[in-house]
Amino acid sequence: MTRRTSGGKAYPLFRPSVHNLMLALGVASGTVLSAGAAYLLGAIVDGLASGGLTLGEIVARLTTFLGVSLAAALAKFALDDWLPLKANLRAEVEASDGAIDQLLAMPQRAFERHDAGHFLNVVNAAAFGYGAMAVYLNVNAVGYAIAVVALLGCATAIDVLLVLVFLCGLAVYFAVNWGPMHSAGRLLMEMMPASEAWQEEVRRLVEEKRAANAGAAEEFYLQRFEGSTNEYRAFLRRHRLADTVQATLPAAISPALQVAVLAVCVALWSAGQVSLGSVVAAWQLFSLLQTPMAGICSFVSFYVASRPNVVLLREHAGEAGEPSGFEALSTGEKDLVARVEGTLWATPARGEDGKRLWAGEFEVRPGELVVVKGANGTGKSRLLDLVRGLSDLADLDGEAVLAPEALDAAYLTYPVPVVTGSLAENLLGREADPEAARVLDLGDLTERAITDQPLNLSLGERQKLGLLRALSRPEPVVLLDEPLANLDAGVRARLCDHLAGLRGRKTVVAIMHSGELDAAADRIYEVRDGRLSRVC
Ligand SMILES: Nc1ncnc2c1ncn2[C@@H]1O[C@H](COP(=O)(O)OP(=O)(O)OP(=O)(O)O)[C@@H](O)[C@H]1O
């Protein structure tokens, strides 16, 4: 199986490349061209003030001014807005794809540390936030910095005094905006747990709608949802306010700063330090500075807010890369599919605090039909999960030897997962085994549209779908958690015959609550009084 995994440090913030530099230059190009236009305007004003320009020269300069201004507008749209937006979208989707790959690669025990809301947040908000921030940092922010430097360069070309005035203006600008920039970002960071809890509650409401209606528990669900909504909304309100202040403050203080800069320039002009054209150009240049400065401000705020996303994604990547512990369990012992010895616990807790499922020994040899029995909740499904490498190995106090065939086994799990689509799509890329299809008597299942709505399939039909999926797989080991559940008598009998007929060709382990497979079984294990032992 091929997976896209991130090599080196996962989710790096700095991604220097020629491509990113080109994009950054594009971001700066609109502002730089506008600065050229401002410079030309100053020259036109100076020419007019000195009275030394002919009509032809004035027309030529105005035409150049118009051309440069139009080019600046075009560059602003195409290079400053559109190309970075495209790069942004690509980076967002790539980060989300990577997070999904890591989710699939993640060992079960790491997966079980979190609820679904966490993963929804990782794949959606955090991945998109990271992708946007990476482009913002490596393209937009670099472009804004280039633009600021270019504007300061233009100011130097007009008059070096202007640079000092501009730098003072920039310092005031950042000082005023610093607080709101940080508080908006910080609030977003603090809001994350409430946002995860709210997403989890939405998921539960959607997935458990039927339980809510059937159990007349709408009020219960609504109250729980309201609780998490209120908490989330309290954060949202504060964040929206801070975000609005942060977004509008630059525009609010800009006019005041521009007037202050103009006043200083006019004072320098009346003192004979700069020309009238320089005052006009300085006014233009300083107003051009607003865009990159506002961009840098929103970047700082975005950066503060997005740092937790990066931490979250890196943790996610780390958990995906954690060894499951199952890799080293194969000793290459011939004629062995699985051997498990020791005590199986429901959770990592031991002793008084932990729930002991059973202690004992379990063994499966190739080609055998093995039956596992026991009362409800005694850990039979946990045993199959362990054999399939889908649980936390730390839950076993003892030793396990598992052949790669066991870790790769076809597995009928409970409840049977259903995919929206046709029956063929529910086989997840495999062809239906004709013999299994005959045994299961699929009826109109082959033609029907299947959805994950609980009532779309009867319990028996859902079971048949899961069985067909497991029995159609080519893997030599098949694990079946209660294969006969919800099937009618005819299908049960045919299925038992079919499973008995697989002996010698496939290794089958079946959890059973009845004796229908006992006669055909090579081994029968049973959990009795907390001990798993071979009874036949
Ligand atoms: N992560 C977990 N945290 C707490 N308890 C757990 C966890 N996983 C499993 N258990 C508990 O372990 C017990 C064994 O579950 P398991 O599904 O293996 O039982 P089973 O023998 O297959 O039962 P049944 O015959 O009812 O299907 C259950 O009581 C279950 O609640």
Automatic annotation (TrEMBL):
Cell inner membrane as UniProt keyword: no
Transmembrane feature ranges: 21-46, 143-176
Compartments, as annotated in UniProt: Cell membrane
Domain ABC transporter: 338-535
Domain ABC transmembrane type-1: 21-305
Membrane topology: Multi-pass membrane protein
Keywords annotated in UniProt: ATP-binding, Membrane, Nucleotide-binding, Transmembrane, Transmembrane helix, Transport
Any one Pfam family match given in the protein's UniProt record, by short name: ABC_membrane
Gene3D superfamilies cross-referenced by the UniProt entry: ABC transporter type 1, transmembrane domain, P-loop containing nucleotide triphosphate hydrolases
Alphabetized GO MF terms: ATP binding
Major site of localization recorded for this protein: membrane
PROSITE patterns per the UniProt record, alphabetical: ABC_TM1F, ABC_TRANSPORTER_1, ABC_TRANSPORTER_2
The name this protein goes by in its record: ABC transporter ATP-binding protein
